[in-house]
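In this supplementary section we document a worked example of the pipeline. Step one takes a protein sequence of length 138 as its only input; no multiple sequence alignment statistics are reported here. Step two produces a three-dimensional model, which step three serialises into structure tokens for compact storage. The input and output of this example are shown verbatim.
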Amino acid sequence: MIRQYLISYKQEFMEKRIDTIQSLHKIELKIKENMEFLRLIENSQDKVYDSFSPHNYSVNNTNYIKMKGLKKENESLQKALSDTKTEIEEIEKKIKDLDAMIQYLNHTAKEEMEYKKSQEKKIERKIELENELQEFHL
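The serialised model returned by step three reads:
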């Protein structure tokens, strides 16, 4: 009964681990997308032309604001990435602990069954000896 509970509890953690790994991949993908978008914005700006052209100020300002926002978003995504990796490690540790408990219960149950079998054999042997003794007395 306890073993079944631990197995179902382990299953819940395994499902949570899968969900968390999927979240990790989404965060990594978003970081890559942001980095690529930042690179595209930086490459689209002509630094020499910008220095001499006051007409392009609003576009550059918009790009600058967008780049600043993406960099800030990446910082928060990096924090989320780190937290998610830590969460996965904690889940994996719990799964490992549950595996150890389940294995211990399996081993204990096996020993208990072997003990019961040996006790049954002793009782059977005792009954056989008593029967032989009764036959001998007759």
